[in-house]
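Module 6 notes. Inverse folding takes a fixed backbone as the condition and produces residue identities as the prediction. Think of it as a translation problem where the source language is geometry and the target language is the twenty amino acids. Below is one complete input and output pair. Work through it position by position during the lab.
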């Protein structure tokens, strides 16, 4: 049996080395070095096993082959199952990555519709997305929740696309009726996002990003822990960037003033732990980060490096507005 395995191994090694040499993908010597150790190493493993198998077949019973065949088949089946599971896991990971990219692309396209109407809102959404993601990371949320916070930050104001023309651009204080219209944008945003596959959970976060922990927010007057955590994170990031940005009716506040106002509003408007986490981030951050002027605050250049076509924006805006008013 050992002699037979030696002859078989030499023939195998020769054939396995000649073929690559003929195709020009490897030299004969290189092929021998690559496959030789594996083939030679198999001889002391396989020869005794096959010898015992042959001896059992001759001296005991032909049925003794089953004692060797069944474990071999079982091992082969396990290897096949492992391979299939590995391929399925790789395919699922690829599908999840493509879905995440599609979600981010869609969110960027939605924000671009606001960009076409109100330049402040688009830049504001990009800043809130970055701040929300960093707060989520600071308080120890999972990577998945951090990316979800970023996505929610991008689309948190999408409901403003359904507001009356001229309301976003108005200079000066809003009237009571105009303020009531403005306060409808979380509900409009929820209606828009509910129409999109995989955005149902995001729509609930968007609906509640103007709630207050004391129950005096809108639209549902939720209190404390009843407000989704990501909504509480968006609320802090939203308020800070709004205060530190130029608006049609006022100049931007210094970062230290905005941070003081956040601190004064804990336990009434904002969640204490969220404000504390954001303050820790801002304390060690650069001035560009505090003012949302760093390169990372541009509207996700990983997805699109240029402004979308105007005709496409007009079509998307019209579609979103139709959903908002439905």
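Target side of the pair, the amino acids:
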């Amino acid at each position: 049996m050992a002699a037979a395995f030696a002859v078989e191994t030499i023939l195998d090694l020769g054939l396995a080395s000649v073929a690559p040499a003929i195709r020009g993908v490897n030299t004969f010597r290189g092929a021998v070095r690559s496959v030789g150790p594996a083939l030679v190493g198999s001889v002391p493993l396989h020869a005794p096993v096959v010898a015992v198998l042959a001896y059992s077949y001759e001296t005991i019973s032909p049925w003794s082959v089953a004692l060797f065949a069944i474990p071999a088949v079982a091992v082969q089946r396990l290897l096949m199952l492992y391979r299939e599971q590995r391929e399925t896991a790789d395919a699922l990971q690829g599908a999840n990555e493509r879905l995440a990219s599609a979600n981010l692309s869609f969110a960027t396209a939605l924000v671009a519709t606001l960009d076409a109407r109100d330049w402040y809102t688009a830049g504001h959404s990009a800043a809130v997305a970055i701040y929300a993601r960093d707060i989520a990371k600071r308080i120890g949320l999972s990577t998945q929740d951090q990316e979800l916070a970023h996505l929610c930050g991008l689309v948190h104001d999408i409901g403003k696309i359904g507001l009356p023309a001229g309301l976003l651009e108005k200079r000066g204080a809003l009237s009571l009726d105009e303020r009531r219209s403005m306060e409808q944008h979380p509900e409009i945003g929820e209606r828009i996002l509910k129409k999109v596959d995989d955005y149902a959970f995001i729509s609930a976060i968007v609906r509640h990003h103007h709630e207050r922990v004391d129950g005096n927010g809108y639209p549902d007057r939720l209190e404390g822990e009843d407000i989704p955590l990501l909504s509480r994170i968006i609320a802090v990031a939203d308020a800070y960037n709004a205060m530190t940005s130029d608006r049609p009716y006022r100049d931007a506040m210094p970062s230290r003033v905005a941070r003081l106002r956040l601190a004064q509003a804990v336990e009434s408007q904002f969640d204490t732990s969220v404000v504390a986490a954001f303050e820790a981030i801002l304390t060690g951050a650069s001035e560009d980060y505090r003012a949302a002027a760093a390169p990372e605050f541009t509207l996700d250049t990983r997805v699109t490096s240029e402004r979308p076509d105007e005709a496409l924006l007009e079509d998307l805006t019209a579609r979103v507005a139709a959903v908002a008013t439905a």
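Reference fact for the lab report: Residues 195 and 323 are 8 Å apart (CA to CA).
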